[in-house]
Structure formats: C-alpha cells, structure tokens
Amino acid sequence: MGQHVLLIEDEPNIAEAIRFVLARDGWQVSVLADGALAVAEVSRLRPDLVILDLMLPGKSGLEIVAQLRAAPGTQSLPVMMLTAKGLARDRDAALAAGVSVFITKPFANADIVAQARAMVGL
Amino acid sequence: MPFNLLVLVCFTYVFFLFLVAYLVERRAARGRVAWLRSPLVYTLSLSIYCTAWTFYGAVGYAARSGLEFLTIYLGPTLVFIGWWWVLRKLVRIGRQHRVTSIGDLISSRYGKSNLLGVMVTVLAVVAATPYIALQLQSVTLSFGVFASDTPEGWALPDRNATAIWVAVGLALFTVLFGTRNLDAKEQHHGIVTAIAVEAVVKLVALLAVGVFVVWGLADGPADMAGRITASKIAAWNLQPGRWFGIIFLAAAAVICLPRMFQVLVVEDGDERHLARASWAFPLYLFLMSLFIVPIAVLGLERLPAGSNPDMFVLTLPLAAGQGGLALLAFLGGFSSATSMVIIEAIALSTMVSNHIVMPLWLRFRPQMAVSGDLRRIVLLARRLSIAGVLALGYGYFRLSGGSTALAAIGLISFAGVAQVLPAMLGGIFWRGATRVGAAAGLGIGFVTWAYTMFLPSFGSGGVISAQVFSDGLFGIIWLRPQALFGVDGMDPLLHAVFWSMVLNTVAFILGSLLTFPGPEERLQGAAFVNVFEAGNTGPRPWARGQAEPEALLVMSQRILGDAALGLFATEAKAQGKEGYLPDASPEFVDQLERRLAGSVGAATAHAMISQLVGGDRVSVEDLMAVANESAQIMEYSGRLEAQQIELSRTAGALREANAKLMQVSVQKDAFLSQISHELRTPMTSIRAFSELLMEGDAPVQVVSAQAGIIHTEAIRLTRLLDDLLDLSVLENGSVQLDLGVCNLAAMIDRAFVAAGSFTAERGFLVARNAADEDVFLHTDADRLVQVFINLITNVRKYCDVAQPRLRIVVRQKAGRVTIDFIDNGTALPKAAQGVIFEKFARLTDPARAGGAGLGLAICREVMANLGGSIGYLPGQGGPAFRVTVPLHLGQIGGRG
Fold this sequence. Notes:
The structure holds two protein chains of two kinds. Chain A is α/β, with parallel strands linked by helices. Chain A contains five helices and five strands, in the order βαβαβαβαβα. Chain A has one domain (4-120): Rossmann fold. Chain A has helices at residues 12-24, 38-45, 61-70, 88-97, 109-120, and strands at residues 4-8, 28-32, 49-53, 79-83, 101-104. In chain A, strand 1, helix 1 (12-24) and strand 2 (28-32) form a beta-alpha-beta unit. Chain B has four domains: 3-402, Up-down Bundle (Sodium/glucose cotransporter); 547-605, no CATH class; 626-717, Orthogonal Bundle (Helix Hairpins), CATH 1.10.287; 736-892, Histidine kinase-like ATPase, C-terminal domain (Heat Shock Protein 90), CATH 3.30.565.10. Chain B has 36 helices and nine strands. In chain B, strand 6 and strand 7 form a beta hairpin. In chain B, helix 7 packs parallel to helix 20 (435-454), helix 16 (323-364) crosses helix 17 and helix 26 crosses helix 27 (602-612). Chain B is elongated and about 175 Å long. The N and C termini of chain B lie far apart (119 Å). Chains A and B meet through helix 1 of A and helix 28 and helix 29 of B.
C-alpha cells in the first residue's frame, strides 16, 4: 500500500474532503494550495498521481499540466483535473493539454476514489 | 351657256383632276415619285399663290387702281429672287424637323409650345376666312356671269344658294382629295400634281384671253400700247406708301400663308427645286401679270359702265362671242379658286387637328394615346376642320355682303397672316427670340389687325358699331379702329398694317429680351438658327439597307433582351424571309427605333441607330438630347448614391449595435460561467461532506467538524446569492432608495460595528477626525453604510502588514463630501486598480476573501445610485479608496 497522490487545490474545504476520502482508502496524500509551486513539488515528491484544480492562484492547472507533459520524468504521470467550470470547452482544453481524467465539481466521493484507483492500476 | 352644262363641265374637270391625283398617288405608293418631285412640279405647285384674286381680281384691281395691282406680284418676286436664302433656310428647317405646318414651325421653334401652335392656328384660320370667302365669291360671280349670259352678270336668282353649293362642293372635293389617307409627313403627291395641272390651266387660260384681247380685240401690241396710254389707267398716280405697304404684305404673305408654307416647305422640301423655282416662279408671275392691263383697258373700253371689272376676264370673251375661250377662262378661274381652297383647307385642317383637336382629345381621352385607333380620329378631325374652314369662309361671304372688290378682301388676309412674320423670321435668325416674345407679338399683332382691319371689313355698323368708328372703343378717342393713337388721315390699309406690324414687332422683341428661354426652347432655337452649320442634321427618315441586320440585332438584344429576337423573327416572317434576320428596311428601322425609345429614351435610341445606319451622323441636337437624358440618369444615380450612403451608414450603425450586443452577450456568458463556478465551489464541499456524513460511521468530533464546514459553505452560498440579487437590482436602477438625513460619523460608527461583528481575529488601529465627520447627509444611510462596511472588511481581509492601520479622511467640497479609506498595506498594482470594481475580480485566494468578488462591484453600483462615486485613490502609500457622495441627494440627483 502507499500509493502517493499530490492534491493541488486552493479551496481548503474541498481539499480536506478529497484528502479525507483518499486517506481513508489508503492513499498517502500531500496537499498543496499554490499553483506556482506545483511543478517543483511534483519533481520533489514524485507522486504516483496528481489531482489538481483548473483555477489555481499562482499558475493555472492547464499550465501545470503542459509543463508536466513537457518534462521527461513526468510525461506519462497520471493527472486528474477538477473544475467548477462546467463548460465543455474547458474539458476539451484540459484533455488536449494532456489531462488523463477530467471531473466536474461537485463530484461524488466514490467517483474520485474509483478514478484514482483506476489511474494507478489498482 | 346653260347653267347645267357649266356644272357638268365643272364636274368633268374635277373628275379629271381627281383621276390625275389618284394615278399619281398610286405611282407614289409604288415608290416611283422621281418625276413627281421635279422642279417643274414644285414651281407649278407654288402657283397656288395665284388664286381667283390674281385671276379675276387683278384685272379688277388694275381697272380700279391702275398699276398698284403689280405690288401683289412684286412682293413674291422680290422674295424669291432677293430672299432666296430665307426660303432655303425655311425649307431646310422644315425638312430636318419634319415640320407639318407653319403653326408646327412656330410651335417647334419655341420649345414645342402648343400655346403658340394654337395661336398661329387661330390666326391662320381667321385670316384665311376672308380669303376663302374671296374664292367663293369669285366662283359664284363667274357662275353668275355664265348663267345670265349678260355682261352685268348678276342674273342668278339666288347668289347665296350658289355660294353655298360652291362651298359644299369645294369642301367635299377637298375632303376627298386631302384626307383620303393619312401621311405622317403630310405630303400629298396626288394633290400637288393636280395643283400643278391646274396651274397650267389657269396660266394657259389667262394667256389665251390676253392674246385674244391684244391680237383679237386690239390690233397687236402697238395698238394696245396706244389704247393703254389713252385709258385712265395711265393717269393714275402711284401712291408710294401703299406701294411699299402692299409689296411688303405680299412678300410676307408668300412666306406666311399656310398654303404657301404647305407647298413651299411641307410638300416637297428639296432645296435644289427651290433654286429652280427662284427664277421660274417669278417668271410664272410675270406671265400671269402680262395681260392684266390690256384686259382691264379693253374691258373698261368695251363693256358698259357699271360692269364688274373683276369679271372682265370672262365677260370680254363672252361679249365678243367667244364662248369656248370664255369657258377656258372660267376653268382657269375655277382652277385658281379650287387649288387655293384645297391646299389652304388641307394646311389649316392639319393645324387645327394637330394643335387644337388632338391635344384636347388626348387630354380628355388619354388612354387613346396608347391603344385607340388615332388615325380614324385624326381623319375625322381633319374632315370636320375642312368643313369648318369653308363654313367660316361662307359666313364671311354672307356677312361682308359678297360685293367687295376681290383684291381688298385678299389684302385683309395678307395683313392677317403677316403677323406670323416677326415670330418666324426672329425664330430662324435670332437665337434670343423666346416663347413669351413670340406669344406677345402674335397676340398683340392679331388683336391690332382684327380691330383695325378684319372687324372693320364687315362695314361700319357690322361688327363694330359706327359710334366706335367715330369715337373710339369705350369712347377713348385714340382707340378709333382706323385712327389708332390719334394717327388720322392715313390710308386704312397702311394704318392697319403699320400699327399691327409695329406693335407686333416691338412686343416680340421686348418680350424676347425680357424673358429667358427654357432649355428645350434654347435647344430648338440653336437648331433652327444654326440649321446650316456642319453636323446639324435633324431627324430624317432612315435610308434603306445601310444598317447590318446582325448589328441591329446585337444592339437591340443589349437593350431589349430576348424580346429583340422575337421582334426580328416576326419582321423576318413578315418580309417572307428564312431565319430570323429581316432586311433593315426603313420602316423596320423606324419601328425598332420607336421600340428602343421605349427603353432608353427617344434621343438615345436615335443616336444608337445613327451609329449603325451609316451616313447619318449624330447631330448636335441628338447629342444634347442624349446629354439631357444622361443628366437625368446621373441625377437618378446621384439619388441612388445618396441612398447607398444612407444605407451603409445604417448598416454601420447596425454593425456597431450588433458588436455591442455580441460584447454584452460574451460578457453575459462569462458572467454566467463565473456564477456557475462560484456556486459550484461551495456546493462541492457541501456535497462531499454530506456524503461522508451519510455514511454514518464517523466519530462525533469528525461529524461536528464536517457539519461545521457544510454550514459555513451554505452561508457562503447564501451570501453569494444575496449579492447577486443586490447587484442585479442596483444595476437595473430599480432599487428603492430610503432617503433621509443622517450624520456621517454615526454612519461610519455603524459600519465599524457591523464589520467588527464578523470576525475579530485581527484588530487594527483606526484614525478618524470627529470634527470633519460631523456632516449631515441627505441620502440612503443603509446603502452608504453597506459601502463603508465593504471597504472596512476589505482592509481587515487584505491588509498584509502585522499592525494594520486605517485612516479615514473626510472633506467637503462644492456640495459634495469625500470619504477616503486609506490603510497601510501594499498598494495595488496599476493593472489591478482598473479591474477591482469589475464583478468577480478577486485578486487573492478565495479563502481569505470569503466572498465571491462582488463586493466592490456592488459598491460601485450603490454609489452610482446615490449620485456619487467610488474609486481607487493612487499615491497614498497603501490601498486607498475614495467615496464621493452629494450632501443632498435630491439636489444633485442619483441615477434613474
């Protein structure tokens, strides 16, 4: 056990909810609120999965994904993107940027867990 | 000789003439008109100048007044020899402008004015009336002479009955001759030829009588000369004034008489014929006048005193027992009278129908112009006009008593038609002549002539009472008909001619100088005056076969489209040709021109056809007409252009409005998207934690914490919805303001209380000035406090120094109060200063803001509603906001 997930979310209550359900499922969860630090944290922590919000202070989720996909070590790192923007064009932009799974807020807790498991092959 | 035999002879003669005319017309119809259009026929047709007046009346004139009769011959002779160039110009103009009568000439010259056409027509009809009466009188007299077989010649039981029969006969004759069919060019080949035959008959008859008199009754020229010297004719003095006046009248008449214009210009119109006629016609006149004096002298010598000298030509042979010669002379006189009446009636009826009847008819029955059979109407109008003209002549004959000397009657007519002279000569030589001038001259000349000559010819007490004769009109002495303006003792004829011509000319010249011609008038004036200038070719019939049918078809298709093909095919079929290309016959080209004119205008159509039909250059007139049409088209396209500009302006405005709408729509989409985002965020926490709570297996502390989060997010959601509603109300301007007077310090206190009650995690220092804040405002206190709360809360939330300080500065200026909120945090960057008042413009992370970013947007709307404003105040060292509010809202006025 001990799959490592990095959660990047600026809304503290939402971050707490996701952390709670994943931790209960056995994940090791790291939480980050600032988008500007995201890429550095990924290379430092080397998580198995990244969950990030689309709208982040400091750096937007799409930019972070693009940087991750450009770097050699994180080209195939599974990335789950969350957003409160419900528009189809946001989803398209996210998938085009290399996001593996796109989930719209509000979400079902079970959904997050199931998707996270599937992404790391559990 | 029995009267019935005479009538039979007349009928036979008329039948013979009719036959001549008929055969000639048949030849003409087959296109063989070459010999008909010879100078000889032309010259002979001009001899209708010599009417019964010259045939019978000249002898009477000589017997009464001596050599003065020669003036009647001298006038035309001078014109034909000396004024040949005037005639040539008239003929050229007549041909180029397809002039149909003298009325048409005048009307056409002065801008196709129908008023002038009517005036000339009326003048001509009135002036011709005595002249026609003269012919009736002479024929009646000659009948009388024969029927009675006595030299006195007054034996007919009822002179008036004879006259009426003569009139009816002449009318029928003219109708049969002149209106059998309708010719667009008003040419009557048959009649002209018959007139030429009659000219020969009257010349031969008069010469025969003359020869008989000189060599039969007298003993040759020498004896004759002696008799003349012995007679009283030699003793008559010449009156230079009358000579000059009558020569002038005769010269004017030969141009202006409607019938002379008809044969001179309308019927032939070949200038080469005119060259021959310029010496041949004077020669004819010379021959006609050669034996007048001998006949008069012998008549006076031989016949009993009291015999009518007008009938000497008949009575001399009769008295000498020469019945055959007398019959020839009778036929000569008959020819003179009939030829004059026929042509005069034709010319007048053309004018009456063209200038009076048809315009009236078309005015009252306008639909006839396009659909009806106008030919029938025109012919009927002409026939009735002919009958009318002869009826007038008969009426004059009855009124004037039928006893006046023939020459005296003729001169009245001459003076009448001479009134056209100024307008005509002015029209063809003076470009400055105008319609008004012509109308004034004609009108005044006509009235003067009628008053001084025509009406007095009915005799004192006839139409004009004896009192007017002696005391003048309305008792005004200088309005006496025969002593106008107090000019007394003048010969009545000279008096009338002098005044009518002088007043006419003066009015014409003054009228022309004082008025300005219209465009069409100017155009016609130039075309008439400059008729001989190179390139000035008027409309004329198209020559045969000069245009390529293919070229015509191509051009027509450009204008008419496929209809042109049908038109050509129909014509080809009518011509009996294979395919769709007919011969370009003149008729077809004419038809085509009319058809094209319907599409592109007459002038343009003419010019286009001219391009294809070689040899006929485009004239100045054509070009000017084209220019005229082009000007209309340009004006039209100018209007179109203006509309175009207007339309594109409208389109631009629409585009702008549309762009604005699009922008608003984009803003609305962005706003909705942001609202959605702002609603979904608290909703996400609520859903996630409520799912966890529903599992029901968590410890109490965890449940409590999670329920607390759900509660906080629910409140956040509610506040967001409240803000949105508030903003919506404020933006719509439908906010209800609760106005009242309130102290500013009290309002700021309330704001601090409200803001402080929220979160007390961080205290901060506040600097205020109680004196400055002691201001009473008339405003909505609750709304203003809402703005203050917002600003204070922002300081509490965003001030990023350890010890936050807020300074509140109040100032008054010009009825307004400014309240500045300045704290000691980090000042906003320039870019941010512009957007902080926009909706959802949250600069920092949402956790600290705790709102949806609508606060300052709401503040801006509130201040707008309160008639004030809120703005960022740069250069204060830290974040600073200035609220401006009117002291009294009602005075300065809020929004809406």
